């Protein structure tokens, strides 16, 4: 048979055979040897499981069992370090240095009251109410360089932070928001587009009611006369002259407050915001008015 015939026969065979793929290739015969079960490490017939007992029967004792002794976790007294940790409220920090930076960059308008909605709108602060985060903790980092005069509402603040803001002629208020209200403040546009009425803000739970009714912490439920007295005491303690708010050009802005049931500045509970028609629908029914005002 000539070489030409061999070539043609090979080509015809290749044409008739299928293409090589993972589905039709296999190892060469004898290239793999199946391993048989061994006789044990030392030539016995136990196969590495030992002689009787838990090792051979595979019925090991549970973790923490000390063969009849009083176990470790019962000998040591119980100290609940993390008791209720999943219920504890978190307040993501925002320093006075960062707040001054937002003001210097015109991300915050100091001619209007500042709350969670305006701070989140700046794009440099965020919070997640579904992760037990209940608002802003204003920290004292940068208090020596803070110079802005603002009306700000936060959820937690120390005495030094309060003094730094009031020294510049500003006003600070600590206010509680329930998680549903925080979701609304985080993304007001999304809520307004849903066409729902603005709900009421819930009152603080019992474990923080003392903080938000205390004039020393500038709680939003505290007596305004007692707050004025505490402002004077704090100025005397830290040795600065308390600015006169009544003669200030921004007096109307500085004294603006939210109602304890109010979520947004300038918008009352029960109102429906129509973004498409750019109008506000207000309830007229006496029962609804009584419900949203309570």
UniProtKB/TrEMBL annotation:
Start and end residues of each stretch annotated as Disordered: 20-57
SUPFAM superfamilies named in the record: Ribosomal proteins L15p and L18e
GO cellular component: mitochondrial large ribosomal subunit
One Gene Ontology term of the molecular function aspect: structural constituent of ribosome
InterPro entries named among the record's database cross-references: Ribosomal_uL15, Ribosomal_uL15/eL18, Ribosomal_uL15/eL18_sf, Ribosomal_uL15_bac-type
GO BP, sorted A to Z: translation
Record has Ribosomal protein as a keyword: yes
Pfam name, any one: Ribosomal_L27A
Chain ranges of the Large ribosomal subunit protein uL15/eL18 domain: 93-173
UniProt family annotation: Belongs to the universal ribosomal protein uL15 family.
PANTHER family: 50S RIBOSOMAL PROTEIN L15, LARGE RIBOSOMAL SUBUNIT PROTEIN UL15M
Protein name, entry field: Large ribosomal subunit protein uL15m
Lineage: Eukaryota, Metazoa, Ecdysozoa, Arthropoda, Hexapoda
């Amino acid at each position: 048979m000539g070489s030409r015939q061999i070539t043609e026969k090979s080509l015809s065979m290749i044409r008739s055979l299928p293409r090589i793929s993972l589905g039709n290739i296999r190892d060469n015969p004898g290239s793999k040897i199946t391993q048989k079960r061994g006789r044990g490490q030392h030539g016995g017939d136990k196969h590495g499981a030992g002689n009787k007992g838990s090792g051979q029967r595979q019925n090991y004792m549970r973790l923490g069992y000390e063969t009849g002794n009083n176990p470790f976790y019962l000998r040591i007294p119980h100290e609940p370090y993390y008791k209720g940790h999943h219920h504890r409220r978190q307040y993501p920090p925002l320093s006075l240095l960062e707040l001054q930076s937002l003001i210097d960059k015109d991300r915050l308008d100091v001619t209007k009251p500042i709350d969670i909605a305006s701070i989140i709108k700046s794009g440099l602060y965020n919070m997640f109410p579904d992760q037990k985060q209940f608002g802003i903790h204003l920290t004292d980092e940068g208090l020596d360089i803070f110079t802005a005069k603002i009306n700000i509402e936060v959820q937690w603040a120390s005495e030094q932070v309060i003094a730094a803001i009031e020294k510049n002629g500003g006003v600070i208020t600590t206010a509680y928001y329930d998680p549903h209200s925080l979701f609304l403040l985080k993304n007001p546009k999304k809520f307004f587009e849903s066409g729902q009425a603005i709900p009421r803000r819930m009152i603080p739970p019992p474990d923080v009611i003392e903080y938000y009714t205390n004039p020393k912490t500038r709680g939003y439920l505290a007596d305004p006369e007692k707050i004025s007295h505490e402002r004077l005491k704090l100025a005397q303690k830290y040795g600065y002259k308390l600015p006169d708010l009544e003669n200030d050009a921004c007096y109307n802005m500085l004294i603006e407050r939210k109602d304890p049931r109010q979520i947004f500045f300038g918008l009352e509970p029960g109102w429906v915001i129509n973004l498409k028609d750019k109008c506000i629908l207000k309830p007229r029914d006496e029962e609804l008015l009584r419900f949203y005002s309570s």
